[in-house]
Amino acid sequence: MVQVNLWAGLRRFTDGHDVIEVEARNIGDILKGVSKAYPALKEIIDGGVSVSVDGRIISSGVTEPVNQDSEVFLLQQLKGG
Amino acid sequence: MALDDQNKSNFKFVGTRPKRPDGIDKVTGRAKFGADSYAAGMLHGAIVRSPHAHARIKSIDTSEAEALKGVKAVVTRADFSKDIKFTSGKDSEDWNVLENVMADDRVLYDGHALAAIAATSALIARDAVKLVKVEYEILPHVTDVDEAMAVGAPVIRKGAPDKSVPPGLHENVVSYYESGHGDVEVGFQEADLIIENSFKTEATHQGYIEPHACLASLGSDGKGELWCTTQGHFKFQKVCAALLGLETSQLRVTASEIGGGFGGKTTVFIEPVALALSRKTNRPVKIVMSRTEVFRATGPTASTSMDIKIGMKKDGTITAGQGTFRLQGGAFPGAPGGMTAMCAFAPYALKNVHQIGYSVMSNRPKQAAYRAPGSPMAAFAVESVIDALCKKLDLDPIEVRLKNASRKGTKASYGPTFEEIGLVECLEAAKSHSHYKAPLKAGQGRGISCGFWFNFGGETAVSLALSEDGTVQISVGTPDIGGSRASIALMAAEELGIPYDHIRCTVADTATLGYNEVSHGSRVTYATGLATIKAARDAIRKLCKRAAEKWGIPEEAVKWEDGHAIPSGPNAGDFEPLSLKSITEKMGKTGGPIVGHFEATPEGAGVSFATHIVDAEVDPETGKTQILRYTVIQDAGKAIHPSYVEGQFQGGAAQGIGWALNEEYIYGSDGRLQNAGFLDYRIPLASDLPMIDTVIVEVPNPGHPYGVRGVGETSICPPLAAIANAVSQAAGVRLTELPMSPPRILAALKAE
Amino acid sequence: MSNIHVNATVNGDEVGFLCDPRETLLDCLRDKLSLTGAKEGCGTGDCGACSVKLSGRLVCSCLVLGAEVEGQEIETIEGMSRDENLHPLQEKFIEYAALQCGICTPGILVATKALLEKNPDPTETEVRYWLAGNLCRCTGYDKIIRAILDTAADMREAS
């Protein structure tokens, strides 16, 4: 199980939890797992989020692998200029 | 795609300063920008725009305009795809773009497009625009971000807020972001001094000297050609196809040379309109925006209203940081409230931090990205408060920043743990720089600021074709907005081991390559560069295979060195090295043309930090600020072409100077933009600025073979605060509103 | 209103064109004579991207009407280099990376050439104020000024 850290603004949808656990081998699994655990989050996730894995920011890819002990954070989708 | 060890320090071409490939074209006027294309039978398009900040369109009467000799067609919203529906969730961007490109039943800002005309000359099209009669029902408007969030503010669009917005907020708040860790209340208890302050910045425009321009040709068979100035022709292809109801691949888009973008040319404005007019007239249509239109109706950055509270101990340790950031992005979602909040405290390792970002709508043009969207404003607010704390506690500003600086292993304010980063190196370089030690005279002030930006990867596809004479053609899909063609050729030269001058890099059209994400997010040298390195290695594998076949040895027994295929060891055999040219001149017969390519969405763009030092002097009689000295210190990971890295540092600093001292969108009480021209929207002149010194710090990014970090954006993050800190010291009073124009400074001096 | 026939000299060549009374010299150079080196950045004489020389005087061609140039001599960026060699300013701009996007470059080169013809030994301040009418958004002007001062020194040495 991978521990996924959410940003505080999402607590409303997760009964106050900041960290949730999902079964995942890659980013795609994480996003699916989070949406499945808390359907209220699905629209936000579908709208686009970036994910940080062990400090590396993955802006959109779903195939990046994660280890069970990876540090994973959901982030606002990055946009540049 | 990680940093590899072999090339890291023994670069032969990377790090040099050769001439750029488009240099001669640009100094002779031969280079073709957006407005420099002409087609046989071409018509000119002009756009009818709202003079009201908010109104319902009751009717549009184009009869007089259509009767004008030379007018060939009129388009309105009805001429665009009916399949794009309003939504606030994912896939909402196509509708928002369409609504901005051409109004439906309401105009939402002064300058909003509502119809367009094609005529045989630009003057006739302009005259026809004046003959279009629109009946409006004027609605109440709001342009200020705090007013737009207040009870009673006119609602810009019902149903626009996304799921992130908690209940209880005005419907103009369309997105909400909150994050942090620790407990700021506990942190504030531990502080010896707490400073709380509020800050405002006004909207600014990217200010590119080249207005948007395009030449479109679209047939009734759905096949079209579009020439336009853009940061991303593949994105424009996708969006225009959607808005016109075309299949993406049937529209071919060619990017012209671009006269500045800075984020403002990452989205369409006039291109779908030109295509619609072309389809209706069956002739090519050219549209060029006037400067007034650029200001009124393209995408400035957001204006902000921010509250910051920071606690510090006597020894300089920051015990808690709290920030609330309110940003308006015009009459559409998209203001970077989340980004602003995420960047605000990123340079600091804080045990207790909390940030909230609101993205709000108002009756202003749809905001577009502007060089590190959100980050400069956040830095302005946070770094001003840190500066005030340092002054009050009589601490050195660089020492305090070093004490609290984020490093590898620090938990970022926005959550994850930092990998290798170069903030400390930038601060150390600032500390030891002669600028920091130079004495100041009375009436002069010095300001320091840090800045941070994420940088970006994004879809990238590159093709590298070898010519029979041993030279190389690289096709990339990212418009060159900063000199990237030179850097790309340098990276290819490094891999192939052939001279830089034997390589030509071209920005190819959408029909030539797979999808390429827009040139933004400081991504081109990183992502297109990485793809070029991979494509070169792909070509090298193929070259080695030809050599192996010629020598009758296994492929693995051949390696590439200094532009030649050689046996990888004495056991492989004794063969004379084969130059690239000797292989390519026979390639038709030995297996066919040799092309290397690479497609991917690289992730692992490293974040970058910067520290700026600014000296300023304020004239107490006029309120005018003179920037005396400016030094940019920024981590580039690895500078491929140092001259162009320096150029990015200097350019970002200059834009920051304008934003800090003069630039602002001025709205009247009628909601109309008052200063839609370069006279009253004053960007820095040559006579305003000193030389801008640069220091390139190199802490390699583990996510790129050569360690490259994007540099284009971070350079605009520190200036607002660095200058505010310098000016506040010079004037003797803290300025909290940008721009710090002469009237504002005089008012602040008087109030003291 | 009917079109006006104008005869003039551009970069040493005799030209003729028809223009609407409202068309600017900039419009005529670009749309009638295919000389697209001069650019329209603002149309109001604030940015200098349209700089040309008109009978020896540096002007914003967006502020001059096409009809006004009857019988006059115009010098544009296209006439700056002789045969296959670039003008020293053009060479130096490339060498110093004194351009990024390049849209302001023709205007700045034309304006600078006019300055050096008038004053071959300008100070940094004099160069900066002479170019106050030429906006650049990309470079912060640093490398431009350095390129110009260096070229001026070279040109003085060569003469």
What is this entry, summarized?
The complex is a heterotrimer of chains A (81), B (752) and C (159). With 752 residues, chain B is an alpha+beta fold.
Write the layout of secondary structure elements.
The complex is a heterotrimer of chains A (81), B (752) and C (159).
Chain A: E1 2-5, E2 19-22, H1 27-37, H2 42-47, E3 49-53, E4 56-58, E5 72-76
Parallel strand pairs in A: 1-5
Antiparallel strand pairs in A: 1-2, 3-4, 3-5
Chain B: H1 23-28, E1 43-49, E2 55-61, H2 63-67, E3 71-75, H3 93-101, E4 106-107, E5 113-119, H4 122-131, E6 133-138, H5 145-149, E7 173-181, H6 184-190, E8 193-201, E9 213-218, E10 224-228, H7 233-244, E11 251-255, H8 271-281, E12 285-288, H9 291-297, E13 303-312, E14 318-328, H10 337-344, E15 353-360, H11 375-393, H12 397-404, H13 423-432, H14 434-437, E16 444-453, E17 460-466, E18 472-476, H15 484-496, E19 503-507, H16 524-551, E20 558-561, E21 564-567, E22 578-579, H17 580-584, H18 587-590, E23 595-600, E24 608-618, E25 625-635, H19 642-661, E26 692-697, H20 719-731, H21 742-751
Parallel strand pairs in B: 1-12, 10-11, 14-15, 18-19, 25-26
Antiparallel strand pairs in B: 1-5, 2-4, 2-6, 3-5, 7-15, 8-13, 9-10, 9-12, 13-14, 16-24, 17-18, 17-23, 20-21, 21-22, 24-25
Helix pairs in contact in B: 7-8, 10-11, 11-20, 12-13, 15-16, 19-20
Chain C: E1 4-10, E2 13-19, H1 25-32, E3 51-54, E4 57-60, E5 73-75, H2 88-95, H3 105-118, H4 124-130, H5 142-158
Parallel strand pairs in C: 1-5
Antiparallel strand pairs in C: 1-2, 3-4, 3-5
Please describe what this structure looks like.
The complex is a heterotrimer of chains A (81), B (752) and C (159). Chain A is α+β, with helices and mostly antiparallel strands. Chain A has one domain: Beta-grasp domain (Ubiquitin-like (UB roll)). Chain A contains 2 helices and 5 strands. In chain A, strands 2-1-5-3-4 form a 5-stranded mixed sheet. In chain A, a hairpin with a 2-residue loop joins strand 3 (49-53) and strand 4 (56-58). The mean pLDDT of chain A is 91. Chain B has 21 helices and 26 strands. Chain C has 159 residues and is α+β, with helices and mostly antiparallel strands. Chain C has 2 domains: 4-79, Beta-grasp domain (Ubiquitin-like (UB roll)), CATH 3.10.20; 88-158, DNA polymerase, domain 1. Helix content of chain C is 34%, strand content 16%. Chain C is built from 5 helices and 5 strands. Chain C has a 5-stranded mixed sheet with strand order 2-1-5-3-4, sandwiched between helices. In chain C, a hairpin with a 2-residue loop joins strand 1 (4-10) and strand 2. In chain C, helix 2 packs across helix 5. The chains are: A alpha+beta (81), B alpha+beta (752), C alpha+beta (159). Chains B and C meet through helix 1 and helix 19 of B and helix 1, helix 2, helix 3, helix 4 and helix 5 of C.
